[in-house]
Write a structure and sequence with these properties.
This protein has about 230 residues and is mainly α. The protein has ten helices and two strands.
Length: about 230
């Protein structure tokens, strides 16, 4: 009977995540991970083909956790209020995972169907609110407008790049509100542009009596009025 494994994939991923938190993305080796879970390094390669595969596993775990954090955010009747809560939850998640957060948008991250599914699942709790705000067809577009602001803001915040005084929280709230109101106005304007406009048909009156008659135009088949002969 084969002996039970000394560790699991989840334990290896958790150990790698702790090393990312302490030393950064490039500050550890597979040997460090193996030592953290009490096995020899070669045994890890049966689970993860190389170090980058393990880093990717950590990243996908973060997307799963972000989805859970967004799912816990309060919901409101108005989509702007809901999306504001979701933006706050996003920021809180990023600050709680400051060292690992950078993996989620790392340009070196592996592109794979699994990664695409993980990202979609991570943002899924927010999509109904985006659809309510901008329309089902524009929900992804709206998410792509707000997400860069959130990522850019929290990345600067985590890097300590806001150095010109206080008011960071106020700036975040103002930025989120400005974007959401703009998206709502854009959706409203687009809806009005797509709505059919009523057609006004001129009425021709008789110069003396003012009486009119209704006739069918031979081309448009619309009803028109022309003066009735005396």
């Amino acid at each position: 009977m084969p002996s039970p494994p000394k560790t699991t994939d989840d334990e290896v991923i958790a150990a790698a995540r702790k090393l990312v938190r302490r030393h950064g993305r490039d500050g550890f080796s597979m040997t460090d991970v193996a030592a953290a879970v009490g096995v020899r390094a070669p045994s890890l390669y049966g689970r993860f083909a190389h170090r980058e595969a393990l880093v990717t596993a950590v990243e996908l775990t973060l997307w799963t956790e972000l989805g859970a954090a967004l799912a816990r955010a309060p919901r409101h009747a108005e989509p702007i209020a809901t999306l504001t809560e979701l933006a706050r939850a996003y920021r809180q998640f990023a600050k709680a995972n400051a060292r690992e957060y950078g993996l989620m948008f790392d340009a070196r991250a592996e592109r794979s169907p699994e990664g695409t599914r993980a990202r979609a699942a991570g943002l899924a709790p927010a999509m109904p609110a985006f659809a309510a705000l901008a329309g089902e067809a524009n929900a992804l577009m709206a998410a792509r407008v707000l997400t860069p602001f959130l990522h850019g803001f929290v990345s600067m915040e985590l890097a300590g790049a806001f150095r010109l005084g206080e008011g960071i929280d106020e700036a975040f709230e103002h930025g989120v509100a400005t974007i959401l109101v703009g998206l709502a106005r854009g959706a409203s304007a687009g809806s009005r542009a797509r709505s059919p406009r009523p057609v006004r048909r001129p009425v021709q009156s008789h110069p003396k009596s003012g009486a009119t008659t209704r006739v069918i135009h031979p081309r448009s088949r619309h009803l028109r009025r022309r003066p009735r002969a005396d």
